[in-house]
Design brief:
With about 325 residues, this protein is an alpha/beta fold. The protein is built from 13 helices and 9 strands. It has 2 domains: about 100 residues, Glycine betaine-binding periplasmic protein, domain 2 (D-Maltodextrin-Binding Protein, domain 2), CATH 3.40.190.100; about 160 residues, Dipeptide-binding Protein, domain 3 (Roll), CATH 3.10.105.10. The strands form 3 sheets. Strands 3, 4, 5, 8 and 9 form a 5-stranded antiparallel beta sheet that branches. Strands 1-2 form a two-stranded parallel ribbon. It is found in: Cell membrane.
Length: about 325
Amino acid sequence: MSKVKGKMVILVFGLLTLLIVAGCGSDNGTSSDVGSDTSGNESNDMNYSEAVDYTITGIEPGAGISVSTEKALEEYDSLKGWNAMFSSTAGLISELDTAIENEEPIIITGWNPHWMFAKYPDMKYLEDPKGVYGETEMIKTLTRKGLKDDMPNAYKLLDQFHWEVEDMESIMNEAQVSGEEIETIAEKWVKENQDKVEEWKEGVEEVDGESIELISTPWDSERASSGVVKAVLEQLGYDVTVTPVDVAIMFESIANGDGDATLAAWLPLTHNDFYEKYKDEIDDLGENLNGAKIGLVVPAYMDINSIEDLQPNE
């Protein structure tokens, strides 16, 4: 073998050796520690906590789910040092849309019924072992004292009003898809579901222009229920006003008699603090919807199942 050929063989052998060594990478078989701890085990939950900057994205600060989230920050060791960014329902949806579009981690305060679960059906609730958010909830109808005597027919209609989660979500979903106002869709729903409406109206007599005020919240779910009941009361001859306010003001208005009724009391947990404060000053007509739920929600692509899987900000 010539000296030139010998040098070429040595050079080729050296290059192959370098390529083999480079291909081996680190001892645990990966060239990156993203998604792994120092032992080489996956640690996605820790990265999720860091990725969301130890922040839960929420809605209005006075909402019942926001109050529960503040309690969760106190109750869970996994949420020590975390913050809740309370803004508005529209703000939360905007943040959620952006995160899912880019497949980024996000942790939000979520609730059913809501159209977001129709738009993003794979979202999931994080398990809540401490029960801070409760289990399934009911939405109750509350009235001011004396409404039964002053407006017996309206009282009877309100007492007999009951529908399903699917009914409420169908209105919210259609409004979201069509771009029409929820109240407009609620009127259509009433016309298309007269069989249910007739059950609510059983034994209720028509009136001639009596005025009644429903106190609600600005949530889409409550816009749906108040829109439906408003339409039915108007069929009976009532002049109906719907006033959306903060939850605290809603309870106070019914207790003080400034408003006649509300269909928006989430119990036994979400609005319990307000209910306990005013329960002796209001009439409780019982549930108008069962199967509601609140909690912390994440997109399905986040490989995490429980609040306790998160990591404290230490």
